[in-house]
Amino acid sequence: MAPLPKLAVFDLDYTLWPFWVDTHVDPPFHKSSDGTVRDRRGQNIRLYPEVPEVLERLRSLGVPVAAASRTGEIEGANQLLELFDLVKYFGHREIYPGSKVAHFERLHHKTGVPFSQMVFFDDEERNIIDVGKLGVSCIHVQNGMNLQTLTQGLETFAKAQAGR
Ligand SMILES: [Mg+2]
């Protein structure tokens, strides 16, 4: 069987959901009586549709998951993870502004997982470049996270291991 990463890390904005939580939506968020998640103005908030399946797949493979976001809207981002019932998947959440190198150093410190055993999904090239320099296998997410991108990430990770 192909080697699996010991930690899968996800960006939030435009990776798990199609907006910037500090710009395009209006916290605080709540769950309305019909079960949908809405912001303060009643705007319906959604994840990319395959995100729960992606996280469930990683759980079934036994791969721990973490979040790394540079948003300034820390409370709103955490609230959305709770309202979408995703907290159970994320063993660690590093959510604060600044270079993602800091987020990954903290993840490494907390989990003991070497950078070479991590895979990272993010829509922004600057983060891919910064974190890639640490030796993390990085995947540039193009149209939001989905199962195909997950498979691509696991394959990229396995190939990097074979090349060591
Ligand atoms: Mg993003």
Automatic annotation (TrEMBL):
Family listed:
Belongs to the HAD-like hydrolase superfamily.
The cofactors named for this UniProt entry are: Mg(2+)
Instruction: Give the catalytic activity.
Output: O-phospho-L-tyrosyl-[protein] + H2O = L-tyrosyl-[protein] + phosphate
Question: Which terms does the record give in the GO molecular function aspect?
Answer: acid phosphatase activity; metal ion binding; protein tyrosine phosphatase activity
Query: Gene name, please?
Result: LOC101839247
> Which EC main class describes this enzyme?
hydrolase
Q: Which UniProt keywords apply?
A: Hydrolase, Magnesium, Metal-binding, Protein phosphatase
Report the protein name in the record.
Magnesium-dependent phosphatase 1
Q: Output the InterPro entries linked to this UniProt entry.
A: HAD-like_sf, HAD_sf, HAD_SF_ppase_IIIC, MDP-1_euk, MDP_1_eu_arc
Report the source organism.
Mesocricetus auratus (Golden hamster)
Its function, per the record, reads: Magnesium-dependent phosphatase which may act as a tyrosine phosphatase.
EC number(s) stated in the UniProt entry for this protein: 3.1.3.48
